[in-house]
Structures are given as C-alpha cells and as structure tokens.
C-alpha cells in the first residue's frame, strides 16, 4: 500500500531550483533515510513533502490525495514534523511542550481533555521523559531535549513522522539513544519514519530504505545494500569508499574513504 509519494516535485527559491522533478515512493511502515552532501536538497525535499515550504510544481500525494488540498489540522493528524532547529518558549516545561502535540485535536477553547492527558502521559512514558516532565525544556541536555520533541510528535498520534537531522549536535551515545528510540517506534508501533541523516553508517544500520540525493535529484534509492556501495558514494559524495559489513547488524558499513580529486 502506497501512502506517501511525490510526482515530479520541483521546489525553488526564487529562480534557483533546489529540488527538481523528484518522483519517489516512501515505503509504508518502514524507516527511510535521506542522504547526500551538504546543499544537495535533502532538507528542502523533506520540507516540501511536509508542506513547510511551497512547491514550484508537481505533487505530494498522501493517501491518494494532494497534500495541498488537506486542511492544516487534518494534515497534522496524519503527519508529524520535527525540524532541524526547534525553538521552545523560554520557561516551558516538558509536559507543556508535549501537550502542544494535541493541538490538531483541540476545538473551542482549546482545553485539554482526559484523552489528551492520557496521550501526553503515554508519549512521555514511551520516550522515557516522564521523570523530568515538570522541568523546563531549557534545562535539559541535548539528548533529553530531542526525546522530548519526539514525545511531542508522538502526542500528535500520527502514523508518519518526519525528522530533519535528529542527531545533529548530539554526542555518539545520545545519537544512538535517539535512533534506537525511532527504531523501536517503527518496529513496535509500525510508525513510518522519514529522516535526513548525515552519518552513512547510521543510515545503513537504522533505515530500511535509503534515498541518495545530489543536486536536487535522486541518484539511487533502495535498501542499504544497494545504496551504500562504492559507485553510488563516488557519485553522491565524491569519495572512494571501502565498504564492509557491520559485524553486529550485518548491514553495509563504510570502513574508510578518500576524497576523489580532480573530478567535477
């Protein structure tokens, strides 16, 4: 079943085309990682799929319909978005921030219902953030804050979650903590997850499907075994990579690489 796809999607900033003629299908109930060099259009593509930025032409299809025709609250019940840079109001507590995820379901005066509180508590529990629910978000570590933002996304009760570089600025342990949480949500709750990642080995290890981009176009898409291979990495990143197998996950692993010089 195809739930999310793009057809000839083009996104431009002014006269500059950033994403050009992209037609991709996102596997349902799997983790998809978008990889590519800086400035290749990864984040722009993600934002275009979520309607955070307008498209120039083409379509983004969700459940067979163009997302441009969805009302904002209706769309927010289907997909949650975690941008690369999150800003919370100063002094906001963890529980208060997570409660914002219930906005798509609020009517009238916007008061939280017993159902809302039940979902908020569940989101805090599943992300292991309940212990600091009354602390201010500003006072948390980077890894803790990222889990809180994921909890807010979960509180939206969507089946599709988008994340733009969720491991940026985190140390190795906290990166694994976040990625393992996302994998758990995918396996146990069948959430469809689409995220931009910079680390090739993390993408290969945690994603079921990879989309490799260059200059606003998809160069290769498929399982990690098909994408994390020397020819694709040469074209996408301009590196000569030595690929092995991760002894723990069995997934392909970039062992070492050299920069390819003298090629345009």
Automatic annotation (TrEMBL):
SUPFAM superfamilies: P-loop containing nucleoside triphosphate hydrolases. It holds the Pfam family ABC_tran. GO terms for molecular function: ATP binding. Keywords: ATP-binding, Cell membrane, Ion transport, Iron, Iron transport, Membrane, Nucleotide-binding, Transport. It comes from the Bacteria. Residues 4-240 form the ABC transporter domain. The keyword Transmembrane helix does not apply. It is found in: Cell membrane. It is a peripheral membrane protein. InterPro entries: AAA+_ATPase (IPR003593), ABC_transporter-like_ATP-bd (IPR003439), ABC_transporter-like_CS (IPR017871), P-loop_NTPase (IPR027417), Siderophore_ABC-ATPase (IPR051535). PROSITE patterns: ABC_TRANSPORTER_1 (PS00211), ABC_TRANSPORTER_2 (PS50893). This is ABC transporter ATP-binding protein. The keyword Iron applies.
